[in-house]
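Technical note accompanying the year-one report. For the benefit of new consortium partners, we illustrate the data format agreed upon in the data management plan: each record pairs a sequence with a structure-token string. No post-processing was applied to the example shown here.
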Amino acid sequence: LSVTIPSEEVKGKIIGKEGRNIKAFERATGVDVIIDDAPDKITLSSFDPIRRHVAKIALESLVEDGRIVEGRTRPEQRQLALQQIVLADLADFIAPLVERVQRVVHLDRL
């Protein structure tokens, strides 16, 4: 799964000083972030498709909101912020699925 990055500068901010940002993101999302020579792409890798999708939404959100800024917060705060974003996006993704399952269970009881 690939994420389009607007510039090399943003890609550098995603990596962070000594790779801190990218490591925190990988820990928070459970995916591997692969940065190669492609100028405007970052690849997200995981065997779990839901983790990949949630990580893509989180990364796109961070880039769009401009929240990936070097040195603005301590690494622990960055990791916590990433986890909150991931959990919120995961909840938005899963809520409709839970509703469908509840409807199916309800129909089975009729």
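Partners are asked to follow this layout when depositing records. Residues 35 and 42 are 5 Å apart (CA to CA).
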